[in-house]
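Sanity check

After download, print the first record. It should look like this:
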Amino acid sequence: MSPRRIQSVLTLVALTLGIGVAVFHAFFKPAPEPRDVENIMSYMQESARWQGMYPPDFSLPLRNGEVFQLSDHIGREVIILNFFATWCGPCKEEMPEFQEYYRKHKGSPLVLVGIDADEKPDAVKRFWRELHLTFPVGIDTNGTIAELYGVRSYPTTVFIGADGRIALFQIGSIPNADVAFEPLMKMHTDLIKKKRGITRANYEKGLSNQVPPMAAHSYSSKKDEKDIKLVGPAHAFAERMKCPSCGKSVNDCNCGLCNKVTERLSTMDVTNKTDDEVLEALLMKGKNP
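Expected structure tokens:
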């Protein structure tokens, strides 16, 4: 079986495991780019539950010595929060887009903050210097801010408008910041310039009165070690099978989907079975009784 075919069927495995109905069409059409699959799945799972919510307040020490308090900027500026990690390839790919967007909107009522996934300061410093980034960044110690926002995958970007509410909650890289942000940016900066942004008091009242969004069951990428190590034919099969999000083998990827596939493979006897037979068994095991 070709790698392209395996990747297409793994996408269907994602559907069968309940990860997202939007990827169903990938089985019947040519395999989409991994990032497209990731963005579709992310939007379906996360965007709806965060849309229109007041963002949790937090305080973040920045690497330049200042402290970013979200509530100090609510209603006064458009706020873009970018959750990233230096080991995350898509994070690195999108950073030039964020930098250019930040540069173009210098002087506008916009604050863009990078929030690192609790890494060593030296690693973050090298990352920032290597990519020639100038917007502020802080390290999310113990992942407390990521937990507030339900962030389980990097990169994740949150756009907060003049009304103090989340207008965009995007999991996965943003290849074109102008396309992603500009329509929202224009609308919300116009409101801020007209002094029609939400007051801090009204934001805090709205935040205290809202019911927190229920956490979705996440199959997103995270940098954890697998609890299960496959051996023999199962390991060989997982090495040939590619993750539809990052393109790595199931053995090398630690996203929720690949961990779930690894878990199911560990309970199966795949000796002397073809790839088609193993995939069929995976799909059958993923179905509800």
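If your output differs, re-run the checksum step. Summary of this record's structure: The two ends are 28 Å apart (CA to CA).
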